[in-house]
Amino acid sequence: MSWIDDNKGQTPWSVEIDNEKLSYNDGSVISTSDNPIWSMDHSGVAISNTHKPCGYWIGNPYVPNPLPPVFTFTGIYACTFSAMYQQIIGEEDFTTIQYGGTYWTGMCAAPNGNTYVCGAGRDIWMRTNGVGDFVALNQTYRNWSDMCATPDGDIYACVLGGRVYKQISGIGDFEDIGVVSDAYHGISSDINGNIYICYINGKIYKLSGATRTIYAEDLGNCYAMYITPTNDLYYGNTSKNKIYKQTNLTGDFVEQTVDDGWSKTWTGICADPDGNVYACSSSNPRIYKQTGGVGTFETIDDTIGPIWYGICGYL
Questions:
Q1: Could you give the number of structural domains in the chain?
Q2: Distance CA 102, CA 254 (A)
Q3: Are the C-beta atoms of residues 153 and 159 closer than 8 Å to each other?
Q4: 158 lies in the same domain as 201
Q5: Within this chain, do residues 101 and 249 fall inside the same structural domain, yes or no?
Q6: Distance between CA 166 and CA 279 in Å, rounded?
Q7: 168 by DSSP, 3-state: which?
Q8: According to the model, what pLDDT value does residue 101 have?
Q9: Model confidence over 147-181: pLDDT tens digits?
Q10: Integer Cα distance of 50 and 47 in angstroms
Q11: Phi then psi for 114, rounded to 5 degrees?
Q12: Please, which residues bridge with residue 32 across strands?
């Protein structure tokens, strides 16, 4: 069993049950049942054998509390009302992976590799670790509009003309968190797990539990919103057919350039770990990409559409 070390990006631990020892992958022994080391720093250096903040010797063998497994980013999903498509990294086009969606509107990818999609007036679906179909989770039918995942794996979904719901750590049902009902059309998490929701008539709120405070206002018709892994906030203004960006959740929103004159009712924005930002529209067949989060949003696919309603990266 190996886990990713948080600083070195390596897999230094190996457990040998028969020999009752904990070793580096190079074979050097860290701890044995006869000479247990209870505590180590992030690089694996012994601190003490008298206290146990990071793990417990249990005989066969000592095991540190593991860090979460690391999943690999592999592509982009995009959905229409009735089908799901994917673009695998390195490939040019989006290809169909599933038909039969029911008014799919919003998507998100969880840090454990699961991907969610919600339907307007319908259910919420999940695909496990990029394998198989999106399967209905049998949630109460609501006018679901968008979804997001926090870095620690909580899943949120907002309702157009309704409230905000949460699934803790990707387990169980989506429960009402008590935020006042409103015309919510987009939801996203920053890198610290703070939740932001956009109101269709031009406001973005930041949540603290069930309390919402105005984060930004006078934004026009705010349909799509996304906060990237570098904490840049993007939103789509459908009344002006424009996308705006706020860098590191600080300062003004700056208009971004898009490479054509199509009408753009922005319905989905997402980003990948390389900083590329993607956007889709329900009023034209194109999907756009801004490379590295800078410069122009350029067309990367115009073969499927024309009704795109959600987009997200997946693992």
A1: 2
A2: 35
A3: no
A4: yes
A5: yes
A6: 25
A7: helix
A8: 66
A9: 999 999 999 999 999 999 999 999 999 999 999 99
A10: 9
A11: -80, 150
A12: 21
Tell me if 69 is assigned to some domain: no
Q: Judge if 60 and 79 occupy the same domain.
A: no
**Contact assessment for residue 216 and residue 175, using Cβ atoms and an 8 Å cutoff:** no
Cα 43–47–48 angle (5° rounding)?
Answer: 145
Q: What is the CATH number of the domain that holds 152?
A: 2.120.10.30
Q: ω before 285 within 30° of 0 (cis)?
A: no
78 residue type, one letter: A
Instruction: For residue 31, give the nearest of 64, 65, 2 by alpha carbon.
Output: 64
Q: Report how far residue 92's alpha carbon sits from residue 94's, in angstroms, rounded to the nearest whole number.
A: 7
DSSP string, 19-74: TTEEE-TTS-EEEESSS---EE-TTS-EEESS--SSEEE-SS-EEEPPPPPPPPP-
Residue with tokens 């309390």: 211
The share of the chain scoring above pLDDT 90, in percent, equals: 42
Question: Among 166-175, 254-263, 284-293, which stretch is predicted with the lowest mean pLDDT?
Answer: 254-263
Map tokens 């990237």 to a residue.
228
Decide: pTM greater than 0.85: no
Q: Quote the mean pLDDT of the chain.
A: 77
Helix then strand then coil, % of the chain, to nearest 5: 5, 50, 45
How does pLDDT run across 190-237, given as a tens digit for each residue?
999 999 999 888 999 999 999 999 999 999 888 889 999 999 999 998
Distance CA 136, CA 123 (A): 6
Asked whether residue 57 falls in the same domain as residue 79, the answer is: no
> Domain of 35?
14-64
What is the DSSP annotation of 184-224?
EEEEEE-TTS-EEEEETTTEEEEEETTEEEEEE---SSEEE
Task: Among 64, 86, 103, identify where a domain stops.
Answer: 64
Q: How many CA atoms lie within 13 A of 228 on its CB side?
A: 25
CA-closest candidate to residue 247, choices 208, 294, 202 = 294
Cross-strand bridge partners of residue 243: 236, 256
